[in-house]
Design a protein that fits this description.
By secondary structure, the chain is mainly α. The chain is built from nine helices and two strands.
Length: 315
Amino acid sequence: MVEPRQNPHEAIQPDFAAAEHALQRQLLTGTGLTDDQAVALLSELWTVANDRDKDNWDARQAELARVRQEVDQAAEEENVRKAQEEEELRETIRSEERKKYKSKYTPVTDAPIPIGPVHIPSRVALTRMKKGEYVELWYFSNKGIRAAEASATKSSRNNDSFVFVHDEDADAATLVPASSVAGSCSSGLIEDVDLSWEEFMQASPRMIESMEQSDWPQDRINMFIEFWSSLENHPWRHSDDAFSQKALLVYQGVQRKRWHIAVGTKHSWSLAKLCRITLAETRQELVHKAHVQEVNRLHRVCSPHLPHNNSNNKP
């Protein structure tokens, strides 16, 4: 099929009665047609050919329009896809920045300025609490909270230093400014077994509050409440015997750490009920250690005054 080069809808029928079409008329009149019949036949043949060209033209234009529409639609879809990818990239960048600078993007609340002191443990402690991991009670004591505040102030002054932190979402270590992990200092950390009763009483209710804020399971929170309440209300708590009081703190420190190691395994247990046998053994071990230390002290004090045994001296 030959495609018309010009729009056949704009074509003008020739005047077949004119002199330039005399040869065409002569060919037809030679078949027995009159001159007028030849003009009419030539006009009819042109009209049939022009109608055919119009149909072909219209079909071609419709095909071209369809192709152009598909190309335009594909281009529009590609632009939308690129725009979505760019927006997703920008959102990823914003999300990473919000993770990196959490303090900057924390929503502002309508809460009034607190009247009393605000007890905010270090970020390390809060992160571990969020994971449900073991955290030393010291972080929630007055000393631990003051250390976190001092660390935050120090980090904001020395913001050119960088440290590696673990990104939970990417599961990888990332180098970030030290100021972004303010409060991570654990200088002066005291293990649970070495806490005083005053420090324990400061820290335990604050850790319970942190458990609730970190969405710990309620049965776990209740276990720790019962565990620590049992220690606080134990007869040894107000005993005149220092070993008995200390045994409660050591028992707490050792058993809580052991519980965190065992939790989730088939060997896990509950801390709610105190084990009197283990508690008695803990006190006995403290007494034994103190006795050994005293013997060693006396030995060091007395040893300079004891005669030296010289194996080279014969009687």
